[in-house]
Amino acid sequence: VQLQASGGGLVQAGGSLRLSCAASGLAFNTYIMGWFRQAPGKEREFVATIGWNGGSADYADSVKGRFTVSRDNDKNTVYLRMNSLKPEDTAVYYCVARRIGVDLWGQGTQVTVSS
Questions:
Q1: In 1-27, which positions are buried (b, 16+ CB within 10 angstroms) versus exposed (e)?
Q2: CA 20/CA 51 separation, integer angstroms
Q3: Per-residue pLDDT tens digits for 46-77
Q4: What per-residue string of b and e applies to 74-93 under the rule 16 or more CB within 10 Å gives b?
Q5: What share of the chain is helix, strand, coil (3-state, %, to 5)?
Q6: Using CA atoms, how far apart are residues 82 and 60, in angstroms rounded to an integer?
């Protein structure tokens, strides 16, 4: 099983990025997919999840209205569109594939937002 996140980078406040997470080695369309993030010195925190069929999207209050999670089951990929980025969004972003009793984590991608 591999979850390969990409799309991170350095962006100015107010800018946008789109993260991608390509999955392989699992039945992608049977997993809830999600994004978490971890800032330096802080615990990993929930960002967004999306149901197996693309419905039931859920967001942390801190990103509602700015971030959009989506998935393409034909491409085994989940996306996180991030708009109106703030310096406090700076973190390593991780994707996760979830089923009952199972969390599969990918490596992170760094997002840095400059003020």
A1: eebebebbeebeeeeebebbbbbeebe
A2: 16
A3: 999 999 998 899 999 999 999 999 999 999 99
A4: eebbbbbebeebeeebbbbb
A5: 5, 55, 40
A6: 13
Under 8 Å between Cβ of 54 and 70: yes
Give pLDDT tens digits for 103-112.
999 999 999 9
Could you give the CA distance from residue 39 to residue 88 in angstroms, rounded to a whole number? 9
According to DSSP, the β-strands at 67-72 and 9-12 are: unpaired
* Residue 3 · residue 34 · CB < 8 Å: no
Burial 44-69, CB ≥16 within 10 A → b, else e:
eeebbbbebeeeeeebeeebeeebbb
pLDDT of residue 23: 97
CA dist 49 and 36 (Å) reads 9
**Contact (CB, 8 A) for 66 and 59:** no
